[in-house]
Amino acid sequence: MADIYRQNAYLNALHNTALALMNNLETRELLESMIRQAGDLVGTENGFVALLDEVTNEFTLKVALGFYVGHVGNVITPGFGVMGQVLLTGETCIVNNYSSWPMRMAGTEYEPLYSVIGMPLKANGQLVGIIGLGHIDAKEFSIEECNVLSRFADLASIALTNSKLYTALQQELAERRLFEKKLQYISYHDALTGLYNRAYFKREMARLETAKQKIVGIILCDVDGLKLINDTLGHEQGDCLLNAAAEIIKANISSSDIAARIGGDEFAILLSDADSELLEDICDKLRNAVDMYNVGHLELPLSMSVGYAVGGSGDGAAIHMDELFREADDNMYREKLHRSRSTRSAIVKALIKALEVRDFITEGHGDRMQLFAGDLAFTLELSERRIDDIKLLAQFHDIGKVGIPDRILFKAGTLTLKEQVEMQRHADIGYRIAQSISDLIPIADFILKHHEWWNGNGYPIGLKGEEIPLECRIIAVADAYDAMTSDRPYRKALPAEAAVAELRRQAGSQFDPALVAIFCGLVENRYRRDGF
After folding, report:
1. Which has the closest alpha carbon to 30: 38, 40, 21?
2. Are strands 196-197 and 258-261 parallel, antiparallel or unpaired?
3. Tens-place pLDDT, residues 231-240
């Protein structure tokens, strides 16, 4: 009769264990429940669960109670100890007199163990874990307990498989939510500055219009001269200015305001419950912040035109957001017109300064170029206006080289074909710069064509002979002579005689032969005497 009662108790315990295990889907909670439930079946509080690490392919103690707590993290070695036997055979291993067992684990820390049982946890016939229990008092595991624990291990294996599936599902859902969050962020944010983009800004405009907001303010900011910077120094430098503008905007508005980059060089700020006084104050802060930025960035100043508009009367009447936006845009554009000339001038000064800082314009180069080209133009009896233009061209013909990387500009060896193409861009870059500055507009076309050759093999157009403007032909001769008689990164200066000989050799191919003859006469009769 006692055996029947005991069997019934075991069956009830297994039923309750199954319910407990199936209700635990979080892996750690499940493992702890496994040890407690298994221990309750046989009356012990000492146990652990080891699981297969799919990366290292090792079995490691993950969770433990009682005696085994200090062993968490240990790796099971096949054949060593009870758990090593389970790992080796894939079958349950029971040792009821552990101290006398020949394959016991060595070490004084294992002396308290009296009896140990290890049971495999399997999924689809493969060993995925081991559950172990132990007695530290003089108690053995009976046959009945072993049978119950064997059935328990089957239930635990199923529960562990479910837990892993649940964990994998939760991870997949978490990754999907993270992906959706990233996708939403990308769809509403500007990739460069991190501000909101135009799509989000338009959505918020529509929301405020339908929400019947009492008062709404819009501030528009435009980075002046960005195209000139992109065309000359490259888009990387232009991006630096855009990021600087974005940081200034973020630093001078509240967290509730919406700032967005709505175009290549245009930013917008949307403010609810804002009056004209507040918007004017923000605009002043933005202008002051730009001035402070420029104090530390003289090499590439930031200029930003700002305009704002306020809509709403406080009575809840509908605000037409598109009209409000146009009003702010008109106000911003008026400021831009007032600033355009000074902005371009500041940018050009920065470009010239950049050339000077990079030491490309060697000491005295500009003065010598104006002397050589001016004297040649005077000898040709050109008008005073043309002579002035030629002297201006002598000073600014290479301004486009500010947009050429240093690795090419100062390369000591021969340029590769790709590098030559990159270097040749300076003529077009210089043309764009000159087109942006009223004082340089008269010589913009000459800057573009000052590397054309008499025989048509020059760049960027391939003009030939007298198709090349006279001003460009004059500069070509003067520049070549000064380059040959000045030190360069890749060679020392040539003597005047060698430079003259080279000019004569290239006459009719690179240079206008008539101009070469006149200029060489000037060199021989004047410059050599004066030390040039």
Report:
1. 21
2. parallel
3. 777 888 899 9
Three-class SS of 228-252: HHHHHCCHHHHHHHHHHHHHHHHHC
DSSP 339: H
pTM of the model: 0.58
Q: Which three-class secondary structure state does DSSP give residue 219?
A: strand
**How far, rounded to the nearest angstrom, does the alpha carbon of residue 380 sit from its chain's CA centroid?**
56
CA distance linking residue 432 with residue 399, whole number of Å:
10
Q: In 401-452, which ranges are continuous DSSP H helix?
A: 406-409, 417-436, 444-449
Our CA angle for 436, 440, 442, nearest 5°, is 110
Amino acid at 80: F
Straight-line distance from the first to the last Cα atom of the chain, in angstroms, rounded to the nearest whole number = 126
CA of 59: how far to CAs of 21, 72, 77, 85, 120, in Å? 22, 11, 8, 13, 12
Distances (CA, A) of 488 to 340, 365, 492: 37, 12, 6
> Quick one: average pLDDT of 57-85?
90
Interaxial angle between packed helices 470-484 and 513-522, expressed in degrees from 0 to 180 and rounded to the nearest 10: 50
